[in-house]
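Subject: Interface between my chains keeps coming out wrong

I've been trying for a while to get a sensible model of this assembly. When I model each chain on its own everything looks fine, but I need the whole thing in one frame so I can look at the contacts. Pasting all components below, labels as-is. Any help appreciated, I'm running out of ideas.
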Amino acid sequence: MWTFFHKLGSPPWLFGISGTILRYLLPLTLIALAVGMVWGVLFTAPDFRQGNSYRIIYIHVPAAVVALAGYYVMAIAGAVSLIWKMKMADIAMKSCAPIGAALTFVALVTGAIWGKPTWGTWWVWDARITSMLILLFLYLGVVALYEAYDNKEAAGKACAVLTLVGTVNIPIIYKSVDWWYSLHQPASIKFTGESSIDPSMLYPLLLMIVAFYMMFTCALLMNMRAEILEREKRTKWVRKLAEGQGS
Amino acid sequence: MYFDSIDALLQMDGHGIYVWAAYGITLAVIVFMLLSPARRKKRFLRQLAGQLRRSQETPGTQEESNAPST
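Reply #2:
Try treating it as a single job with all components included. I did that and got this:
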């Protein structure tokens, strides 16, 4: 167990293992995304009330779910880097931010596009949507704060604190549709009790959620690998890698 | 397939523009998300390799070499 943590802190080991994981995970991710999208767009029946516009659900919900999950990863990595000063945790936190921002952006934009034919408006200052917008700013804040410091250690600390403070927003996002009157519908998929969504729509949706999780993992690992190389550029193994590939 | 024709698929009873726009934007973001770290890594390694080669040609300047700006 402890040797595992020890290895986890070793940049060359993490670089190597993540490369191996990506070799399998990346093609799988692309297949899952393609199958899920084709299934959702071409092979499901339209919603009886919303018609075809509901097909946006297959990207909107996965993007939102994984954008939130990504914040957990970032917050945990931030806490670990604050408490144990683990270099790799700091790299993981930094690498989460742009991906989380991209996914939140997708959730907001697809939500706006879905809102137009369904609610008759692109945007409302509704609790769920506003708290998602705050999530986007939190992610972008971490990206910007990192760039604002020359000292990587100080940057990491400031970002970790911002991330942890921002965690307050997460339960607000979850509960926003219950706490406030909202245009946004409450969750249709439940772990306990029956989901209020037809199985023919549920399965492609679940596939897309899994595919987005896989995509997040791929993007995170790829970002981390680039970051590891840049931070370790003075070490022998990175120089060797550059000499081998960069000609 | 649910739709009878390509035209029906594109139109989606008037919702086509929304659905396709949403999917188009999402695909663009996905491509960007997966390509940008790969490009960043490639560019970095190429830059570092160039630096190492230069520092080998003129020995003794290895430590002053500029850090790649990324």
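Reply #3:
Confirming on my end. Chain A is about 75% helix and 0% strand.
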